[in-house]
Design brief:
globular; about 160 residues; alpha+beta; 5-stranded antiparallel beta sheet
Length: about 160
């Protein structure tokens, strides 16, 4: 199942008070190509390799998966993971954390993007990406082709029911 199909069944803009939480299994979110040998996950307000978590990854096709959380009919994205290759995925050691201030998190090959865009250009690309992602309920879920020439793709979603770590 694709996460967008899961979210399309969401009801309301906010969970009912006291709603029971049920987490889904992993679902497909999207794919991107790792060109630089690293993946980045971090807050969309910075999109900077010195913020968020940057990890080494083999070059190749990466898959982003998501888990959803169902709050009595209201659904949100609860977790993201990304990996390269087809082997079994297993949880590794904690390698860092990110602080979300404005509510968005992204997964991409940021080093490849930083080689392609100036800081000013990258800021404009990110603003367009976030504005295109808005759904009528204020939450989003998409993968984006940021540039027709370079085909940089970013998995982006707004974070859960509040900001934090």
């Amino acid at each position: 199942m694709h996460i967008s199909d899961y979210l399309s069944a969401s009801k309301g803009t906010w969970p009912r008070k006291g709603a029971k939480r049920v987490q889904s299994s992993w679902m497909t979110f999207g794919k991107f190509t790792v060109k630089s040998g690293s993946m980045w996950i971090g807050p969309t307000e910075t999109f900077c390799s010195t913020e968020g978590v940057l990890v080494k990854a083999p070059k190749g096709k990466a898959l982003i998966q998501a888990k959803g959380m169902d709050f009595g009919g209201h659904r949100r994205v609860s977790r993201l993971r990304a990996f390269v290759g087809n082997g079994p995925v297993r949880k590794g050691r904690k390698i860092g954390s990110i602080i979300i201030d404005e509510g968005g998190v992204a997964v991409c090959d940021l080093l490849a993007m930083e080689k392609r865009y100036s800081r000013k250009e990258k800021a404009g690309v990110i603003r367009r990406m976030v504005s295109r992602s808005q759904r009528r309920d204020g939450y989003s879920l998409s993968r984006f082709i940021l540039d027709d020439e370079s085909k940089h793709m970013v998995g982006y979603t707004q974070t859960g029911l509040g900001d934090g770590e």
